[in-house]
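Lab notebook: predicted structure, single chain.

Context: the supervisor wants predicted structures on file for every construct in the current expression panel, including those that have not yet been purified. This is the next one on the list. No modifications to the sequence; it matches the entry in the shared construct table.
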Amino acid sequence: MNRLSLTQRLTLIFVGVCTAVLLGLGWVVSNSVEKHFEALDVEVLSGKMELIAQALQRVGAASDLTQLSHQLARSLIGHHGLEVLLLDADKAVIFATVNASFDPAMVTTQATQHPGQPMLWQLADQTYRGLAQQIPTAALDAKGNHASVIVAAAIHIGHHQSYMQAFLQTLWLFVACAAVLIVLLGWWSVRRALQPLRAMRDQAQVVTAQQLNRRVSLQRMPVELIELAQSLNDMLARLEEAFKRLSDFSSDIAHELRTPLSNLMTQTQVALSQPRAADNYRSVLESNAEELERMARMIADMLLLAKADNGLVLPHRETLNLADEVSALFDYFDALADEQHIKLTLQGQGSVSADRLMLRRAVGNLLSNGLRHAQNGSELIVRLETLPDAVQITVTNQGADIAPEHLERVFDRFFRVDPARQHNAEGAGLGLAITQSIVTAHGGAISVASGNGVTSFTINLPSA
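Prediction complete. Output recorded below exactly as produced.
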């Protein structure tokens, strides 16, 4: 089933609301006109009933009723559409106009149960609106009580009905035409209002891997859509940055694998170019094994990073004494530090809930990186500090500063400050990326600061 578009939904809502308002307004107007006619009729009828009541008050004997009938007949001349019926207590007709052929029982019931209330009477094909009530006279009956006369007065409302029928036809025709106009105007207004959304759609359709620099223009954008457009632009900026890093990463992988593979192919081809002694073949195989081990380590590191990116690196936590773990790492790096005459210093205490092997690898990468870039004869300091809700590990070395433009990329994969990124024995440039992944897997964060000949890497981990 096809789903309605936003334009169609808004148009239907707009048309539905406006049509409901028009229908309600039409009902109110027609009802008001009808009530107005009813009020006019009741006003006329009430006046006639008062005149008849005054005349009945002057009736002193039954013989006067005949005289009253002639008097009423003369007074009603010229009142077109007005019908009057008078009944005595026995429902006998005392006086009636020509067309006042109303049912005496109905008139009596209305006069006794609903006196003075307007009602509609249907006589043949004519409709009347009338009043009926019981009016006492001055005459006395056999029991000595004032005799009462039932009076009914009605007005023919055919002309009102004809007017209302024509009025309603005109009114509902206007409502129908207005509804059609509302449909057209609503559709046009909604499409015009949603034009910025279509512009955003068109912008999104032209975005490709080669055109990630396209952005949605915020000029002439409605206030309600500016935040959405800005969010879309921010998303495109993140995608562009991520795609750029992915492209750089792919290039780095090709670069890092090309050099050892070229070495392996060259050494093997040279070895096979002519017969050689067994020692020569052994030397070639040992060199190939070193290159293969380096490639294996790099591939293992890349797999670890891929698992970390997908949340598959799950630390096996245990409570660790950080001073003991750092001391164990110092024992491992002592020889390298002695060669460079670098002093390893541990300051502070702390404990953390972490995976022992992963934590050692993360801190070990920082120590290895610090020793590699520290000045000979300087000091490398590991500072442990317990904060209210975290434990901080800071590795500081003295050496060349990292340029500000490189600081935000030091944790990128395969990134080296040296733009040439020459293949050397210092590794593939994955150490800091692995450290960051390990820290993130533990719910922590890592940062770097460099200046005035001092570079510091700081790890913040949740307290044990």
